[in-house]
């Protein structure tokens, strides 16, 4: 049976005081070289490891970070988490990842669970359902280090890492217009989310710039963010059964984008000859779709890294950081066959 050795066990075995063993393990100059050698060799022999709970009580820190995202399987968030972990682990922090599955109730439960685990700070991308951010305001006011990334809470002066959503959607819409499409529909996540609204404004601005009318029936919202396939299917059925069908669609989140393509094919539409498709996705296989998919790609890995660096800086600051950091990345529009006239 595995036995976890403590400082007391080592002290008893070597006939030393616990304070002597503790100082020897910590490399204190007060302990002689022979005693240090004796303690360290024995600690190695019994595979002694410091108790993280005891350390966290002593230091008032757990050296862990809580992460709240909609789902790990989402292409964007899986890459962001890789970025988060790359910085956290190299900085001596563990990462606890939770998923909301776009539920505000689950998000609240996840945050409470993470706080009960005494995480040192939180990295949060809001759920599609979240409209009440008062709990985050309260936590922020109490000094809990919080960084929002991708999906941010408005009205809280905390750190936020985003992309230029307006510019991203503007460029994607304009590419479709320049390619010869004029009846462009927009399928997006819930307008509860600021990034949804910013992307919609970019879409609207591109239409306006090129003298195209924004038709209300061409705008569809998926309030579960594409997590429910039937919701996306319903939106597409409504669009493609209009008397005047769209000749192009821009999907403005990862899950919706990767769901649109197979549904349109199942409905019997050819892409791009019947309807062009552009989407926001970090899927590594977008180029392998038939046809290859035009995408807006976010620098998810770098965003995860910067969010974590920002959070750790806030955690380790000896004084509260009253000045919030707001960093905005540019996206990359990768043009492929799905948004070009055949």
Question: Helices, strands, pairings?
Answer:
Layout: H1 7-14, H2 18-25, H3 33-45, H4 52-59, E1 64-69, H5 75-90, E2 94-99, H6 104-116, E3 121-124, H7 134-141, E4 146-149, E5 159-163, H8 165-178, E6 184-189, H9 194-209, E7 219-222, H10 229-240, E8 248-251, H11 254-266, E9 276-280, E10 294-297, H12 300-316, E11 326-329, E12 332-334
Parallel strand pairs: 1-2, 1-3, 3-4, 4-5, 5-11, 6-7, 6-8, 8-9, 9-10
Antiparallel strand pairs: 10-12
Helix pairs in contact: 1-2, 5-12, 8-9, 10-11
Describe this entry's structure for a reader.
The chain is α/β, with parallel strands linked by helices and 342 residues long. The chain has three domains: 7-50, Orthogonal Bundle (434 Repressor (Amino-terminal Domain)), CATH 1.10.260; 62-163 and 300-331, 3-Layer(aba) Sandwich (Rossmann fold); 165-298 and 333-339, Rossmann fold (3-Layer(aba) Sandwich). The chain is 43% helix and 16% strand. The chain has a six-stranded parallel beta sheet with strand order 2-1-3-4-5-11, with helices on both faces. Strands 7-6-8-9-10-12 form a six-stranded mixed beta sheet, sandwiched between helices. β3 (121-124), α7 (134-141) and β4 form a beta-alpha-beta unit. The protein is elongated and about 90 Å long. Residues 55-59 have low confidence and may be disordered. Keywords: DNA-binding, Transcription, Transcription regulation. This is LacI family transcriptional regulator.
């Amino acid at each position: 049976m595995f036995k976890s050795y403590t400082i007391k066990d080592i002290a008893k075995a070597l006939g030393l005081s616990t304070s002597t063993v503790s100082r020897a393990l910590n490399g204190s100059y007060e302990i002689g070289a022979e005693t240090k050698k004796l303690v360290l060799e024995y600690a190695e022999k019994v595979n002694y490891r410091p108790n993280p709970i005891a350390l966290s009580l002593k230091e008032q820190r757990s050296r862990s970070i809580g992460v709240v995202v909609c789902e790990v399987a989402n292409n964007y968030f899986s890459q962001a988490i890789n970025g988060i972990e790359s910085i956290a682990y190299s900085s001596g922090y563990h990462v606890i990842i939770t998923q909301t599955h776009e539920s505000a109730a689950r998000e609240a439960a996840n945050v409470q669970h993470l706080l009960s685990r005494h995480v040192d700070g939180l990295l949060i991308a809001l759920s599609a359902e979240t409209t009440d951010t008062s709990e985050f305001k309260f936590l922020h006011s109490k000094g809990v280090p919080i960084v929002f990334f991708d999906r941010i809470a408005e009205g809280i002066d905390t750190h936020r890492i985003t992309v230029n959503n307006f510019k991203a959607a503007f460029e994607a819409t304009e590419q479709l217009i320049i390619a010869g499409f004029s009846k462009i529909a927009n399928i997006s996540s819930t307008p509860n989310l600021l990034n949804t609204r910013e992307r919609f404004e970019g879409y609207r601005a591109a239409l306006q710039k090129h003298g195209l009318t924004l038709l209300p029936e061409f705008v569809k919202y998926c309030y579960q963010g594409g997590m429910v396939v039937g919701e996306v299917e319903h939106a597409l059925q409504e669009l493609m059964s209009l008397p005047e069908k769209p000749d192009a669609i821009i999907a403005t989140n990862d899950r919706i984008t990767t769901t649109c393509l197979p549904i349109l094919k199942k409905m019997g539409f050819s892409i791009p000859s019947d309807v062009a498709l552009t989407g926001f996705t970090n899927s590594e296989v977008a180029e392998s779709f038939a046809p290859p998919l035009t995408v807006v790609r976010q620098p998810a890995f770098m965003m995860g890294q910067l969010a974590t660096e920002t959070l750790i800086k806030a955690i380790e600051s000896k004084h509260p950081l009253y000045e919030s950091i707001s960093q905005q990345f540019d996206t990359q529009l990768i043009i492929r066959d799905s948004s070009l006239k055949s």
